[in-house]
Amino acid sequence: MAASTLTEVARLAGVSPATASRVLNGSARTPGKDIADRVRQAAESLGYIPNAQAQGLAKSSSGLIGLIVHDIADPYFSAIARGVQEAAREQRKMVLLASTEGAPESEKEAVAAFAARRADSIVIAGSRMSRPEDREGNAELAAELDRYCRNGGQVAVVGHAVVGAGADEGYHVVQVPNEELAAELAAELAAISSGGFVIIGGPEGLLTSDDRIRGFQQGLKAAGRPAAEVLRTAFNRSGGFDAGLALAARIKAVQSAGTTAAEGDSPPAAPAEGPAAPLCIFAVNDVMAIGAAAALRSQGLRIPRDAAVAGFDDIETLRDFRPALSTVHLPLEEIGRQAARRAAGKDGSAASLTPVTGQVTLRRSTETVA
Question: By the 8 A CB rule, do 246 and 198 touch?
Fold first, then answer.
């Protein structure tokens, strides 16, 4: 069955198509109540569906929010997306989603697509890249965002500003204290662990990862502990798993050497001091920590007996992870809500906004590591 047209609604209601459009598409120039009721009744009886583009033109708003994430399958991004969705419902808007794997070129294409659909605002979640190979992509993304803002769009970015973006108006950054929280985590782990530390981080130039690595090293230094070795890998579960396999080989080699020495023909001249404290592994996000823990288990190692493991973000998936993972809790859904509200101008001036905070949460995965 063919869809009813605005002209047919206007004819049934006895009004002009322009009047019917003002009623159904949300124009500020609304006719009298009797006329408006007559138009709505006619539209309902004909099953008329308003045109979203026409509504956007009438209201100077498309009712759309664009959301760009690295990977919607990652629980970190799905939690932020849930917060954006809640804020969108408050604003009576719909969310358009783009999952880009973090490539600036793909993010630029997403911004252009959202701008073409006249999205009222765009939220970008995911670490920024400052690697030399990303320079051109960052420049193109920044130019696209600046163009969008100059045309009245609003942008909110979680974490760091887009590298090179220069728009003065319509641009908001929801800052996350990654460095400070990582330093707090290091201090608490140093207080309970006498073993060494290793950091599993993302590629150099991934700003969120670099912030967390830097903060953790600062926390160790403040606690009087040596700097941790840093293993660079992919910023995902697979990267954590690969790093975990490499660490498992080291741990087993140390354990094997200790067993061989204990079983030697010559007894020690002095009583042994006991086994060395287990290695403490800090992965800069929870999915990497989960991958590292899976790798350790695949090699017959137990957590925290053979190695302690900690992550960062406190993603929802951790509810089912055993042993319970020590991490830094971030209010991910609230971060998403705040980003969407800021981009819509719903949270007041930047000076009045409540900053994002987090909390170190120690659990079973780092217990009894002294």
Answer: no
Task: State the pLDDT confidence band at 142, using cuts at 50, 70 and 90.
Answer: very high
Quick one: CA dihedral 126, 132, 136, 142, positive or negative?
A: positive
Integer Cα distance of 285 and 311 in angstroms: 5
Stretch (H or E) spanning 242: helix 237-262
203 and 283 belong to one structural domain: yes
132-136, 150-154, 169-173, 279-283: range with lowest mean pLDDT: 169-173
What's the mean per-residue pLDDT of the chain? 86
Domain of residue 280, residue span: 178-262+274-329
38-79 per-position pLDDT tens digit: 888 888 887 776 655 445 444 456 789 999 999 999 999 999
Same domain, 154 and 184: no
Q: How far apart are CA 294 and CA 241, in angstroms?
A: 7
User: Is residue 185 located within the same domain as residue 145?
Assistant: no
Q: Which residues are within 8 A (CB) of 210 and not within 5 positions of it... i.e. 6 or more apart? A: 201, 204
Task: Tell me the three state secondary structure of residue 341.
Answer: helix
**Reported pTM:** 0.79
Strands 121-124 and 229-232: unpaired
325 and 197 in a single domain? The answer is: yes
Alpha helices (H) along 157-285: 178-192, 207-222, 237-262
User: What φ, ψ does residue 62 adopt, rounded to 5°?
Assistant: -85, -15
The CATH number of residue 146's host domain is: 3.40.50.2300
Eight-class DSSP state of 356: P
Number of neighbouring beta carbons within 10 Å of residue 112: 16
Q: Look at residues 192, 176, 177, 156 and name the one whose alpha carbon lies nearest to residue 65.
A: 156
- Whether residue 13 is contained in a domain is answered as no
Number of domains in the chain: 2
